[in-house]
Amino acid sequence: MMALSAALLLACGEHEMTEELTAGMTPADSMKSKTITFTFGEKSSTRATLAELNLTDLWIFDYVGAELKQTIHQASTDAAFGSASLSLDYGEHTFYFIASRGIDPVVDTDAKTITWGSVRDTFLASLTMDVQPSSATSQAVTLSRVVGRLRITATDVVPENAAKLTITPSTWYYGLNYQTGEAVALNSTPIVVNIPSSYVGTQNLVTSCYTVSGSSLWQTNITASLIASDESSLGSVTIPDVPIQRNHITSYSGGIVGAGRSISVNASDDDWVDDGNVNW
């Protein structure tokens, strides 16, 4: 009788499991997770890929509520750069995606920031999704540019002893809060551009500088200086109230060493908004 009872209990257990499986449960469901592949493109109509934008780093921060569940980093040297597959527990997740070609990045997940030693083109996106068994296995993410670009054209003929051009802003941002999208890491250190000897005797030396920018337009003062090989100043000019805005190019041109004829520069690349050229 005891053996018969055990056999009946086992049969009952098997019957219940069979009914549960036929009701829609699969072995994968018992794991309570799903793998989703994210692909990335920039906000322009062409949806340029990360490689086409010459970006070098991609970060993904996966949050469930206030808890950081996982951090993914890809470099442009990785074979799968621009496509990331994540194993995700069921439930609501918020993702933050950052793609950049900035130099010397430092990630601080406590402060929720990334800062760079030198800012270059950088993009951001966020996405909240409820991961369930029925969720699609792929998700396209559209990134938006979060840096502004300053273009300076020195219209002087480059002197023989010219060694570098320095751009000194009164306000400049080197970091990004990846949750809020706001600029952090304020720094007014001069930005130094070395001048190759091959540029001596040429005219219209062009340099571009990038800064992380919040969503609103803001202003900074800019001092451009031409420095000789012995560190003496060959000339300097200060431009007040320079407007900076994310995804916008602000262009200025004029003489630094002496009064020179200013030449306008009108160009755009990718989906940058070019605000035209101002002569100082």
**Low-pLDDT regions:** 6-25, 259-270
Can you give the helix content as a percent range? under 10%
Structural class: mainly beta
By CATH, the topology of the largest domain is Immunoglobulin-like
Number of helices: 1
CATH class division of the largest domain:
Mainly Beta
Radius of gyration (CA) equals 27 Å
Query: Which H/E pattern describes the elements?
Result: HEEEEEEEEEEEEEEEEEEE
Q: Let me know the largest β-sheet.
A: 7 strands, mixed
Major beta sheet, strand line-up: 3-2-5-8-9-1-4
Strand content: over 45%
Q: What number of domains? A: 2
Task: Summarize model confidence as the mean pLDDT.
Answer: 86
Q: Strand tally, please?
A: 19
Q: What would the principal axes of the Cα set say about the shape?
A: elongated
Ends: how far apart? 102 Å
Gross CATH architecture of the largest domain? Sandwich
Topology:
Layout lengths: L1 H21 L10 E10 L14 E8 L2 E9 L7 E7 L1 E10 L5 E3 L4 E3 L6 E10 L6 E8 L1 E11 L4 E8 L3 E5 L5 E4 L4 E4 L8 E10 L5 E11 L4 E12 L3 E7 L18 E7 L1
Parallel strand pairs: 1-9, 10-18, 18-19
Antiparallel strand pairs: 1-4, 2-3, 2-5, 5-8, 6-7, 7-12, 8-9, 10-15, 11-14, 11-16, 12-13, 16-17
